[in-house]
Design brief:
With about 220 residues, the chain is mostly helical. It is built from nine helices and no strands.
Length: about 220
């Protein structure tokens, strides 16, 4: 009787067809073209025709991937911010204080903005006013960032370093608001404040927020 061959624990992914690969490459070119133009020209001054030309696709082709220029803005925002936030939480060093954990995450976002203040300015100016179709995507990023920050606060509570009755989610929301307020101020100064000084100011603000709840 023949012995059955053991099955692989993970089935290999099916190969990506040429058509799907071409679609993905076009989408990536469109998103990258939008990112570059939003950064250099701003959102309002950029047209979908310019984005299509920069991406080397027909103007009509662009609308096979997105319904509007606003859709593209939100796509750029989510791809940039999700990548950096996910990496920041995944690379949290062991043994940090809660304050330093939050600074590790927000510092990574500040570093992203420092590399491209033009794009950061577009995000801050435009994303507060996106339409109903795109608002859930923007809110999902903010909610995810706040939720993961609240988890770090709850972890500190379980470790006995933070008051157990403190409202973790509300504190995490306040920390996010401090980050946004300081980002707006930094951008309002034309991004002239060095990112290190920006982080130092945020550290002082977050420390003040957390101080009353920490157990020393």
């Amino acid at each position: 009787m023949a012995t059955a061959r053991p099955r692989s624990a993970t089935a290999p992914s099916p190969p990506v067809g040429r058509r799907d690969r071409n679609k993905r490459e076009k989408r990536n070119r469109i998103v990258e073209a939008a990112r570059e133009l939003f950064s250099s020209k701003g959102f309002e001054a950029t047209t979908t025709a310019e984005i299509a030309a920069r991406a080397d696709v027909a103007a009509g082709t662009l609308f096979l991937y997105v319904a509007s220029k606003e859709d593209l803005l939100v796509l750029v925002f989510r791809e940039e911010m999700d990548r950096v936030a996910d990496e920041a939480f995944a690379t949290l060093p062991a043994g940090l204080s809660l304050l330093d954990e939050l600074l590790h995450v927000y510092g990574a976002l500040i570093a992203l903005h420092a590399r491209d203040p033009g794009l950061a300015r577009v995000f801050v100016k435009e994303l507060m006013f996106v339409g109903d179709a795109n608002r859930p995507s923007v809110e999902a990023f903010v909610d995810g960032l706040v939720d993961r920050s609240a988890e770090r606060i709850e972890r500190a509570q379980r470790a006995g370093a933070f008051q157990p009755g403190a409202p973790a989610h509300a504190i995490a929301e306040n920390c996010f608001r401090l980050y946004i307020a300081m980002l707006q101020r930094w951008l309002g100064l034309g991004g002239q404040v060095a990112s290190g000084e920006h982080i130092a100011r945020l550290r002082a603000a977050l420390e003040l927020q957390l101080r009353g709840f920490e157990i020393r």
